[in-house]
Amino acid sequence: MSAYEHLLYYAREIVNIKKNLWPNWPNSLIDCLIKALHTGDVEKFKELVDNCLDINHPNERGFSLIHLVILVENLDILDILLQRPDINLNVQFLGETPLSLSLQLENFKEPAIKLINAGCDVTIPNDDFITPLQLAVSKNSLEVCEALVKHGANVNAADFYGATPLHEAVSDPVKVPIIQMLLFYGADPTYRCDDGYTPFMRSLHSYDAAMELLEYEVDFNISTKDHLRSSTLLLALSFKNPIAFEIIKRGGDVNYVSTLGDHPLQDAIFWKDPTMFKELWLRMDKEVIFCTSFPILDLYFSEFCHFNVNEWIDCLYEIFESDIAFDIVDSYVCLTRNPFSSVIEGLAARMVPKEDRIKIIYLFLSHSMPVESNDVYLMYKHFGYNEEVEALLLTEIDQSPFTVNSCLLPSLLLTIHSDVNTIVKSFIEDYVPTFSFPYFLKEVLLMFQYCTPTEEFKTVYFQTIVPMIDFVDNTGWGSSNKEIKELNSVVMSKLYIRTVPSLLEIARNATRTIIISKYEIKDFFQLQKTFNCLGLPKSVIDILVFKLPIYDE
């Protein structure tokens, strides 16, 4: 408990004592003074003060009367006490003088000014080496700060952590007048606290405060001494302070990497405007990118990059135009789980126009970005069976063990060695919908465009899916009950109507099976290439690769 808290607790204790308990109160003069103080009896207090030989004598609890006078905030009684020529204005209780105690009050200004004008020592720090000037700065009182300085306060006195009043002043942008006053009276703007921060480095959260100190900073390449080891430029960038541009012009190191692997370019990605990113990209040594804590593309495609879509695209093209584009992609692949999935999500989240979207996909593919089967599912889910999906299909896809995803069509494309009916059966058995009944039913309806449901499919649907839909309808669980009922009604009607596959469907399935077996097809790329080599018409190939539906639904 601090001295302030200790005394405040005791003061409240005295105030709460009922009048009928006063006879039991100690009869020492100091306690009689305390009683008069808390009853607000100014005349009685003055009489007792006049008769008190040692006004500074502490009571058995260890504090002097003036401490409680400060806490009670009775200025009339304080004036009476200050008229005593023998009053000790610098007496301490748990390291707090009356002045430092007064500067912790809500209404601190008047008692503090009275104590200063009465001649108290304005340089005495408390047990944490915090001086009255630092307390006044924290209170944002220009008047008290000036009074302290004019009465001898040291503008460069450091606290326990090596921070000066100027370090405290720059912590809040509204304290600019105090910053100006401290500088006028000789505050050292280059003084580094124990963590290695100069006042300028501390001010970088505020453009206005930082501008007051910019011309005083002599070295823009020092780093902090804490675990962050941040440079001046990194600090400015982390606060998105536009003064970072000025720091760069004045020699701030654009290649600095902190001990945690932070680099200026990483922080620039988090800005709303890409101007800083472009400035750093132009100036920096690109090899430094590989010394950072995160792959640059990982951050660039994340939700934390807020460039507008056109600027985002332009900066991405600049990255690919660099000499180390292959290395950047390789680093992204090595250090990121499912890198292409992150790319796809980034393209979808930013609603990148189709032309640029396709170009970016091909850029990654041309820079050896690996493709997994899940990437195809995700691409289809966001953009449908279009050129984006085809671009992935024409690469060597890292096939995972046979599973059917929630997207039926990509499953038909990727599971080369399973016949269509097996895939459809697995889809209905393995993919049990939860919160996504509408999406699931739409996928079932999509299936009707490519194949006829088997009896096995119908059995699973009626025995498993329909009861689940009835449960949702009866309990009101979910927010799309009406849509679910409408979609299910359409599915049910088609299940009853469609019973026999067409000759075209039978021919498609048989042709795929024969070609895959005869030519030992291993993946979609090889299958597509074989179809082309056989000279089949494009319309036939489109049917064989499920791009063209068989049934008009």
Automatic annotation (TrEMBL):
Q: Which UniProt keywords apply?
A: ANK repeat, Repeat
ANK repeat positions in this chain? 128-160, 161-194
SMART domains reported for this sequence: ANK (SM00248)
Q: Which SUPFAM superfamilies match?
A: Ankyrin repeat
Q: Which InterPro entries match?
A: Ankyrin_rpt, Ankyrin_rpt-contain_sf
Write the protein's name: Ankyrin repeat and sterile alpha motif domain-containing protein 1B-like isoform X1
Taxonomic source organism? Agrilus planipennis (Emerald ash borer)
